[in-house]
């Protein structure tokens, strides 16, 4: 519990254990939070669906990242969600102590830094609340009881966020030429909520909130609020994801990269800190259940485009992914088919 950044950061210099090695430091150069990450107006899907499909597909192929506006999740739901999660992190430590755990298998937990505080070489400027969302009626009983409206507000956000995720997956299904409903059942059955809290940091140039990683799951929907901090690595450069009012950030995870046989990109991203204000983000990580078999969709492979990955259970991938601390290509290596390694690595 004492390890939570929000517990001790006030008025202290950056401890040495939070300083990243020089090659991963964000440095002092400000990254333009440019308009390069595509913004897709999902409201258009009703009028011109083929154009929306094309926009979502292109963004997923080229960037693995995009923002959506007019996405159907109301401004009230977004504001309530951000407010209740911010309130959670602002509560006194005693109120949150029972949720703190360093056991990664706990279904709902509050922890800090990254995958394993005890074994990592250096730490990250982040506290995390993480919980399962499926099956909802079982999980909700384990979610925080305070703030008192947490469960109600977050239930609505998870239900609406999941609906939006499935809508985007269906647009991708059409864009890729998969059979309708391809992602609807097993592949998108599970969901995790991860709320990230990055307190103001005494030296944002030397540390990271979250290291460079790709998400392991199918697709992620992130409410990033008003504060800049998310960056995407593309063509050897970091690009900032500009906070837009009422937008949600969407990114492709490794599961979807594999099922699409590399037609879609799982982009590397990280979070930087700032010295002025705390930044809070709320992510919904849609994935298959851990026992599901993941493999390239049969209809996307043929003699000319052989499968680039073998079939495996998602839980097998997850344990390897976490042992590699999220390193993108290393995490995928044992799942690639040997014949194709030279083509895709
Ligand atoms: C994540 C993530 C980005 C952010 O939680 O996987 O990439 O800006 N978060 O908090
Ligand atoms: Ni991520």
UniProtKB/TrEMBL annotation:
Signal peptide stretch: none
Record keywords: Iron, Metal-binding, Oxidoreductase
Alphabetized Pfam families for the sequence: 2OG-FeII_Oxy, DIOX_N
GO molecular function annotation: metal ion binding; oxidoreductase activity
UniProt superkingdom: Eukaryota
InterPro entries: DIOX_N, IPNS-like_FE2OG_OXY, IPNS-like_sf, Oxoglu/Fe-dep_dioxygenase_dom, Plant_2OG-oxidoreductases
Keyword Chaperone included in the entry's annotation: no
KW Protease (keyword) present: no
Fe2OG dioxygenase domain: residues covered: 187-288
Family of this protein: Belongs to the iron/ascorbate-dependent oxidoreductase family.
UniProt protein name: Fe2OG dioxygenase domain-containing protein
Species: Gossypium stocksii
